[in-house]
Fold this protein.
Amino acid sequence: MTYVRKILTGSLIIMSTAALTACQTTSTTGDNSAKIDAVMAHAAADAKGRGNTEQSLALLEQLYKRNSDNPKAALEYAHALRQAGYYNRASLILGPFAKDDNLENAELAIEYASIHAAMGNYTDAEAAARKAVLLDPESGKAYHVLGIALDAQGFHQPAQVAFEKGLEFWEGDPSPILNNMGLNLAAQGFLDQAIETLRKALATAPDRTEIERNLRIVSALQYQPPVE
């Protein structure tokens, strides 16, 4: 019995050593994978900073393929796809995460709403934006894209409320939301307020030619004679 016990004990030691080796190997592999991901993410950001959007997009695609079940990787890749104009692809990448009933990531919902707004799918954009607002009631970006979706469907007054709420919580350059607020006010016939809002937008971003163009168009409307 003593001999058998020694054999069994020896076997357990061998098994424990093997398990520890396997655990160490898995840990090392995981660490290396994380390091590779970090290097690729840094390279993608660097390429984007240099204006090489195609290289940045290719790197983000590789990152996504390495981590296709990771919502962060999907979000970053979908965002880059939207900026590059690949809306359908972006929607397909982010859709499985955005449609999850247990979604808790407001940024992901905002991006999904932005993709559909860019595609002209304003009802889908509105639904995703409303989900984003529920997830983060203090997100200026969520209210902004909700306002865009509502305004495009002709719901100008609710859109105005969304834009005003978005401006309340806005962070960073406010010219995008001010520009859309101005157009929303113009659509409602509030031309003086629209011009004032567009002027504020242009003052914060004087190089954005689309804001200057919108200001000229709305200003011209102000001096048109009323239709009898």
Remarks:
- The first helix runs from residue 2 to 49.
- Confidence is low (pLDDT under 50) at residues 1-20.
